[in-house]
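Record type: monomer structure entry
Structure origin: computed from sequence
Chain ID: A
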Amino acid sequence: MSQKVVLFLPPYTGGLIGPPLSLLSLASSLRVAGFEARIIDGALHADYLDRIEKEIQDCLCFGVSLLTGPMIATAIAVARHVKRLRPDLPVIFGGWHPSLLPAQTLREDYVDAVVLHQGELTLLEIVQRLDAGRRLDLVAGCWFKRAGRILQGPDRPAIALSKLPTPAYDMVDFDAYEAKSGHRSLPYASSVGCPYDCSYCTDAVFYNRRFNAYDARRVAEEMAELTQRFRLQKIALVDSNFLVNTRRAADIARGLIATGTRIEWTFQASTDLLCRMQDSDVEALAESGVTHMGFGTESASEPLLLKMNKQHQHVADMYEAARKCRNAGIRVTYNLIFGYPGETGADRAETFRVMSDINDRFENVSFSPNIFTPYPGIPVWPELRKLGMKEPQSLAEWGEIDLKGNVLPWLQGETYRIVQRGVAFLALKTEVMRAVRQKYQSPSRRLLLEWIGKPLAWRVKNYCFRCPVELWLAFARHWLIIRRSLLTGRGLSLRLEKS
C-alpha cells in the first residue's frame, strides 16, 4: 500500500499570504514517521485540480485544511471530485472550521474524518492506522464516520510546540511564491493561543486560552537561520498574541540583533501588553527588524469593550502603544469592529472620536475597520440568535457567508449607511493627514490640505456623516483620474490601482 499523503489548502481571497504553515507542520510529523507528504497550495497553483488528480492515484488519504469563508466552497467541490475519482479514498478535513463544527462537517458524504485542533499527532495516528488497515476507534482528537454514523474520539491534550518536529520549510518553493507575490516571505508561528477570552474570538475555543510557545532562544536562532537559508525578506508572525510574555518578546528581539540578521518582521498583539514593555524593549524590537504591529483595539467605548469581554483593553493603552511605537519608528494598525451586538450609536461615535484624535497625534497609526463577523463557536452566539441571526446549518452555508460584507440583521438601512460613511470619512481624513505630513509638500499645498482636513476632522469627531459632500467629491476625483488614464494611457497611482 502507498504511504503517500496528499495535503490540500484551498485558494482564498486576497493576496498570496505565503506557504501554508499548517500543512508544513503536518507534513513534517508525517515525514519523521516515514510517510511521504505532498502539499498542494491552491493559492499558489492555479492548476491545483490537475495536481490533485495526479497525486491521489496512489495515495493513502487526502487531507484538506480550511478556515470559515469562501474557501469552503472550493474544498467541497474538490472533495466531491476526489470521491468521484476514488470512492475508496479516505477524505479528512481539518483546520479551524472543521475543529469548531466537527459533527456538522462530518454530515457531508464526501468527508470521512475530522481532525480537531492541534493536528500533527492526530493525523499521524490516523495515517498509521490506515496504513495498517486498522479502524480509527479511540484515536484522540479525531471524529469519523462508520456506516453513516458519526463516532467521536476522546480529546487529545495539547502538546508543547517544542516537542513537535520543525515545520518542513524545505518543501517550500520560495522562488514560486516570490514570483507570484513579489516578495520573499514566510509565515512563522513562535506561539499559539492567547490567555484572553474575548467573546467574538474563536482562539479561546480552539486553544482553550493556553499560551503555547517556543523559547526565545529557539525563535531568534530559527528566524535567523531561515532568513539566511531561504534569502527571506520578511517573516510574518501568525501568533495570536505575540506579546503574552513580554520578556520573551524582548529576548527574541535582542537575540536577533546578536545574530546580525537583517530581516523585516511583523506580528499582532494587544495594546495592554505592549504598554507593559519598557521603551528600550520596544526600541529593541524595532532594531531587530520589527516594522509593523497589528492591534485588536476593536472599539474605543469602554462599556462596549466590557461587553466584548475585553477587560484588559483600555483607551489609554491605545494612546500609549501608539506613542511607544512612534518613538521606536514602528508602524501600527488598529483593528476596529463595528456592529457588535449591543453596540449603540454613542459607542460608535466614541470610537470614531478617539481614533480621529489618535490619527491627529500619531502619524504611524492606520486603521482597519471591519463589520462584526459571526464565526462558528464564538461565545456570543446565544445573544446573536436572540437578535435574529440565523446560524448556517451546513458546511456549504458557512461557505456562502460574506466575511467582508454585512450579514447582521441589527445593522441595516440608515444605521449601516452611517457606519459605512464614518469608515470612509475616517479613511479619507487619514489619507489627507498623511499627505499633510509629507516633507515634500509645498507650503501652499500643505495649507490647502490642512484646510480640506478640518471639516473631515469635525465630521469624524462629531459623528456627523449626513450629506457626505466630501466623499462625493473624492469619488468624483478618483473617477476623473481613472477616466483620464483610460483615455490617455497614463498610469494610475498605486493607491488608485488598488481602489
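Annotation 1: The longest strand covers residues 290-298.
Annotation 2: The chain has two domains: 4-152, 161-466.
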